[in-house]
Structures are given as C-alpha cells and as structure tokens.
C-alpha cells in the first residue's frame, strides 16, 4: 500500500481532506485502466509513519481512492 518502500504507516490516519476529484485528478485515465471505474478522488491526511531508521514521526500522506475500490497508491510526502 505504500510506494516509499521502507516507510510504514503506524496508527490512525487523521485530518483527511479531498484535494482533487473527477476530472481534476491528473492520473484519472491511468487509475481507471489499472483499478477500474469509480468516482476517483485524490486525498491527503496526516499520519504517524515509521521511517527506515526506526523513528516514528508525523507526516503528510497522499493517496487515491474510489468507492468500492478503496485506497490505492498511498505515498509519504513530507514530515509535518
């Protein structure tokens, strides 16, 4: 679920916000091709992540989701 390899989400994902939906999602065609049709949205939130050195920090994470498909391509973006 995580594209960053050694970064792991621990705990709850909080402060979830939609940052793009429908045609505003740049990767819409690729998402439909890979995972199927749906109301695709790009989301962002904060969560605690375990870094490769073992420390746990709060970070901003992004992902795509659609009803019936779930969260896909979760990515660690930056430390908060």
What does this structure look like?
With 80 residues, the chain is mostly beta strands. It has one domain (8-79). It has one helix and four strands. The chain has one helix at 28-35; strands at 8-21, 41-50, 56-66, 70-79. Strands 1-2-3-4 form a four-stranded antiparallel beta sheet, with no helix packed on it. Strand 3 and strand 4 form a beta hairpin. The radius of gyration is 13 Å and the shape is elongated. The mean pLDDT is 92.
Structural descriptors:
80 residues, 4 strands, 10% helix
Layout: helices, strands, pairs:
Blueprint: E1 8-21, H1 28-35, E2 41-50, E3 56-66, E4 70-79
Antiparallel strand pairs: 1-2, 2-3, 3-4
Q: What's the oligomerization state?
A: single chain
Q: Quick one: overall form? A: elongated
Q: Mean pLDDT across all residues, rounded?
A: 92
Q: How much beta, percentage-wise?
A: over 45%
> Any idea what the radius of gyration is?
13 Å
> Helix amount, in percent?
10-25%
Low-confidence stretches: none
**Helix segment tally:** 1
Q: Terminal Cα separation, in Å?
A: 21 Å
What order do the helices and strands follow? EHEEE
In what order do the strands lie side by side in the largest sheet?
1-2-3-4
- Give the number of DSSP strands: 4
Structural class by secondary-structure content:
mainly beta
């Amino acid at each position: 679920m995580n594209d960053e390899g050694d970064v792991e989400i621990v705990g709850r994902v909080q402060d979830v916000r939609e940052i793009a939906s429908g045609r505003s999602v740049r990767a819409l065609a690729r998402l439909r091709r890979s995972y199927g049709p749906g109301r695709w949205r790009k989301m962002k939130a904060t969560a605690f992540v375990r870094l490769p050195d073992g420390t746990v920090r709060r970070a901003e994470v992004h992902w795509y989701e659609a009803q019936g498909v779930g969260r896909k391509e979760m990515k660690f973006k930056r430390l908060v």
